[in-house]
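Record 1 of the preview.
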Amino acid sequence: MDGFGSGAPPAKALGVRDGAPALLRREGDRYAVERPAKAGDAAPLLLGEDEALIVRFDVPGEAALHGRAAARIEAARRCPFPLESAAWSLTRAPEPWSDGAPWRLAAAPQAKLDALREAVAETGAAPGRPFVMADGAAKNLAPGGAAKRAPLLQAAAAVAFFAAIGAAGAVEIGATRMTDAANARLAEARAALTAAETRAAEAETAREAAAAPIRAAIAGDALFAAAPSAGSALAALTAATPDAAHMRRLAIRPDALEGEFIAPDAAALARALAAAPRFEAAALAGAARTDAATGLQRAVIRVDLGDALP
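->
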């Protein structure tokens, strides 16, 4: 499985607090430091709020019918780092449905998790399965895939950052300041993390483009099942859309449909849709915007449905 989900919070846990490995005890929905970690300690590894990502999001109703598959696509879109190289958990949030099905994603880059394990293990303690606390439950993190151990910038930056903190904590537990050498390593790690965040933003744009056809297919299946007339309109639009263009969002009404398209030439796409035999007219609903990185245009196009559609 990708994520083992929720469980009862353990009475004891190991973690890194204020830069030093510590044995933690549960106090209600929180954990407090009991003492510094030492050889012979064995407990699950707790990641703090600054060490893991916890995101709540809604999966739209039509896509939520596809359950975990749709939630995973949305989780990958919301996560700033690839889930394939992270440990994560994906569970239904306890809140009732509103605009869609609520889900909770908890995740941490595998490099960051490995660095935390190493920092705790250096004391002779044995950190167990990793988890985070959310909704009053322990969210157990499991590897998201067989990530290649390539020297990626983001992984290297995370390892350097936590290695600097772990080194300072090992030299002097509870010290009020670190040595000049540790400060220098920390500054270098932060600079590397800033560069990694820039690369992560670029990767997010690429993932968004890759996931768009999958989300459109899931939404299309739901439309076909719920409303045959809407399905006919979607089928006609799909047949009339050139291979070089694709939709990101779509709204269908009895007399028209309106979608956000990405295409080399948005105006030419509108003319092509208007010329399709099953549509009466098509026009841009606003100005087209050009993506500087890809050269593609993004625009909203309104298509008037013809009488031939059932």
